[in-house]
Design a protein that fits this description.
CATH architecture of the largest domain: 3-Layer(aba) Sandwich
Strand content: 5-15%
Order of helices and strands: EEHEHEHEHEHHHHHH
Largest sheet: 6 strands, mixed
CATH topology of the largest domain: Rossmann fold
Radius of gyration: 18 Å
Strand order of the largest sheet: 1-3-2-4-5-6
């Protein structure tokens, strides 16, 4: 395990990489630490180490291998999301599977990326998530969020009352405005900032500001988890 001490006021986005293969991990470090706007502040060899690093480093994003010893990436994502809800997690996997992404989204991930992707694609994905942009595989993520909503409805119908898992979390301390709800619903439909801007006849910069406020009010890390939280709160209708 390797880490650098946090330094307040840094303008770069702080990243932790968790992968149990030393050569592959070192390659990821070289790719993500090279740009001036990104900084790899920690490396972990398993999910437990990733959680420990997040305790002290509070990174902006964790690039998390899904299959690791001691603790896998899904469980580690779940614990990081519970303890550091503002840290985004991007799952790294060898295969694109619906079941895997469902588990990852439930655990708190922003999305996933394939291990065989081009370095430029990885950098683009990381920057998009860090910038509050549309996560990868948006259409699939949207379907998964719908599945989550349907699962909650079925759970409540089966028992005649909301189950423990389907109960809604406490209401927001800062409620969303009507305009923010409008943006949230379009965001959850998989629309990009540019598409939302065209729909609402505003600038892309205005949409970005709305998205940032929505993420802050929902106390989540990214767009995917904003849609998940909104589903849990019953703010979306499909």
């Amino acid at each position: 395990m390797h880490h650098n001490e946090p330094h307040p006021g840094a303008s770069t986005s702080r990243i932790v990489i968790a992968d149990d293969h030393p050569l592959f991990r070192s390659a990821l470090v070289r790719i993500l630490d090279a740009p001036s706007d990104l900084e790899v502040v920690g490396e972990a060899t398993d999910g437990r180490e990733a959680i420990e690093l997040c305790h002290g480093l509070h990174p902006d994003l964790v690039l998390m291998d899904v299959s690791m010893p001691v603790m896998d990436g899904i469980q580690a994502t779940r614990e990081i999301n519970a303890e550091n809800p503002k840290t985004s997690v991007l799952i790294l996997t060898a295969h694109a599977e619906h079941r895997l992404l469902m588990e990852a989204v439930r655990a708190g991930a922003a999305g996933y990326i394939l291990k065989g992707c081009h370095p430029d694609h990885l950098l683009d994905a990381v920057r998009r998530i860090l910038g509050g942009g549309t996560p990868l595989d948006q259409e699939l993520a949207l379907q998964l969020i719908k599945d989550l909503a349907n699962g909650q409805q079925h759970g409540a119908q089966a028992s005649g009352a909301p189950s423990e898992k389907s109960r809604r979390p406490p209401p927001l301390s800062r409620p969303l405005t009507d305009r923010e709800l409008e943006v949230l619903k379009l965001l959850a439909q998989g629309r990009t900032n540019r598409e939302i801007a065209r729909e609402l006849l505003v600038s892309v910069g205005t949409v970005k500001a709305y998205v940032q406020r929505i993420i802050a009010k929902l106390e989540v890390s990214d767009r995917t988890q904003a849609a998940v939280k909104a589903t849990e709160l019953g703010l979306l209708s499909w």
